Amino acid sequence: MAFKRYRLVPGKSFFYSLFHGSDWVGLSNFRFLMINPQMMRVVRNTLLYNLVFLILGIIVPVTLAIILSYIHSGFVRSVTQICMLLPHFMSWVIVSYFVYAFLSADRGIINNVLEKLGRPSSNFYLKPEIWPFVLVIVHIWKTSGYSMLIYYANICGIDSDLYDCAAIDGASVGQVIRYVILPQLRNMVVVLLLLNLGHILSTDFGLFYQVTRNAGSLLATTETIDVFVYKALIEQTNYGFSAAASLIQNGIGCILLILASRIVAFIDPEGGII
Amino acid sequence: MINSKSGGYIKGLGRGSNAILSIFMLLFSGFMIIPVILILAISLSSEDSIAKNGYRFVPAQWSTDAYSYIIKSADNITRAFGLTFVLTLIGTILSLFLISTMAYVLSNRDYSRRKVLIWFIMIPMFFSGGLAASYAVNTQFFGMKNSVLALILPEACSSWYIIVMRTYFMKNISEEVLEAARLDGASAFRLYFRFVLPMSKPILLTVGIFEAFSYWNSWYANLIYTDSAHSRLYTLQYILYNMEKNASYLTSNENVSGAIMNTVPTESLRMALASMIILPVIVVYPFFRKHFLRGLNAGVGK
C-alpha cells in the first residue's frame, strides 16, 4: 500500500482494489514524505519524547520498586501498590479531563493558584513550550505504576537466601541493591528496553492526540508520527502517505531492535531476546 | 521468595529511614490519585460555584444535579453504559479464550511447529502494518466499518499476553499430570478445560482484568471505525470524548426538551460522566491486586 496510490474501486473487493485498481507509484509516497516540512518536526518530537520516556521509564519504576521492597509496613506497601497502579486503568480520554482540570484557562487549579498568588493567569493550551514537561509528567504518572509492579514482582521472586547470605556477610543496603537486586532485575530491564527500542518511532496516540486536545497551537512540540499517520488517513484519506509513514516507522524500529538484540547477545549471551 | 519467610520485606533499613521512605511512598501515592479526587470533587460541585470559583478540591457548594440529570434524562448515556458493559463482558471472555488456547498450544513442548507459531505471534509485537493497512483491511475486506464487531475483534488478542500466559503455563503446569491424562485417552480440549484452566487461575484473573479494563476504557475503536451517523455504537468513553470536543453534545440530543436544556449542568456533567467511568474501576480492581503480583511474577520472569 505504501508504494501505491490506493483507491477503493466501488463494488470490488479490497484485494482487487489494491492490486488492480490502484496505480503503482513506486517511491513517490516516500519522496513526498521526505520533502514534507512537517516531517522533520514530527520525527524530532517523536525521538526526543521517546528518549526521555526510555530513560525515565527505567529509572523511576526501578527506584520505586526497590524502595517498596524495603518498606516494613505491609499496609503502606498495599496502599502504594493500589494507588500507583490506578492510573494504568484510566483511559486517555479520562486523563485528558484530569489534565484539563489542572490546566484549563479559566477554571483550572493551576490558574486558580496563580491568581491567589497575584500572578497573571495564562492559557496553557496556547503555550507549546510547557507541553513537553506536561506530557512527560503525564506519561510517568500513567505508566510507572505498572512497570514498578513488574519489577517489584521480580524482586519478590528473588530467593531470600541471597539476602540472608548478604546480611551474614555484613553487606550494607547499598551493596545489597548493587550486587543482589540490580543483577536480578537486569534481564527484565534489558527485555523491556529492547521492546521499547523497537518502538522508538512509535508513540502512544492517546497521549499526544487526546491529552493535548488536538490543539493546533501545540502541534510544534506535541505532534508525533502516530498523530501524523492518523491525520493523513482520517482527515485527508491519504492511504499511501499514511502507509508509507507507518512502514518507515516500523522498519526502523525493527532494524534497531534486531541490531540492539544482537549487540546484547554479543555482550551477554543470555541477555538477548532474539 | 521474600514474602514467605521474612514478613514480606527485605531487611536492612533502619527505623528512621524506613519512616522517611514510607512517607515518601505515601506522598507519591497521593500524587497518583489526586486527579481522581479532583474530578470527583468537581462532579459534586454546583454549576454556579464552578462558574464563580473555578475547579476546586473542596466544592464551595455541594450538588448532585449532574448525576440526577444523567440518571433521569440522558438516554444515550444509559444506552452507552449498557453497550460498554456488554462489550466488556463479551470481549473479555472472547479474548481470554483466544489467548489461553493459543498459549496452551504454544506451551506444549512436544508440538513440532511451535517455533514457527511463536514467530507468528512475536512479529506483530515488533512490526505492525500501521494504521492505514489495518484500517483498509478491517473496513474494506472484513466490512467492519460501523459494525459492533469492530469494537470487539481488533483488540481481542494480544501477543504480549499470549507470551506471558505461555510462560506461566510452561512454568506452573506439571507435564506429568498432563502426560498421565493423555495416556488415559483425554482429548486436547478435555485437558485444556479440566486441567490447564483450573491450574492457572492467577494468570487468567490477571489477564482477564487487564483485558476487561481495556474494553471498558476503549474509545479508539469508536474514533476510527464509527461515524457520527451510527451514534448507537458509541461507548461511554467515546461519548465523553465527544463531550470534550463539544460541550453541548448531550444537550443537542433530541430527547431532551427545551425546558430541561436551560438548566443542564454542563461543567459538572462532564466530570460526573468521567467519575461514573472511573468508579467501577476503583471499586473492582483493588480486590485483584494480590493476583496481579502472583500472575505477573510467574508469567513475566524468564
How would you describe this structure to a colleague?
Chain A has 274 residues and is mainly alpha-helical. Chain A has a single domain (4-267), classed as Orthogonal Bundle (MetI-like fold). Helix content of chain A is 70%, strand content 1%. Chain A has 13 helices and 2 strands, in the order βαβαααααααααααα. Chain A has helices at residues 14-21, 28-35, 37-70, 74-85, 92-103, 109-116, 131-156, 160-168, 173-198, 205-210, 219-222, 225-235, 239-267; strands at residues 4-5, 23-24. Chain A has a two-stranded antiparallel sheet. By secondary structure, chain B is mainly alpha-helical. Chain B contains 16 helices and no strands. The longest helix of chain B has 33 residues, at 75-107. The radius of gyration of chain B is 24 Å and the shape is globular. Chain B starts with a helix and ends with a helix. At the A-B interface, helix 1, helix 3, helix 4, helix 5 and helix 6 of A face helix 1, helix 2, helix 7, helix 13 and helix 15 of B.
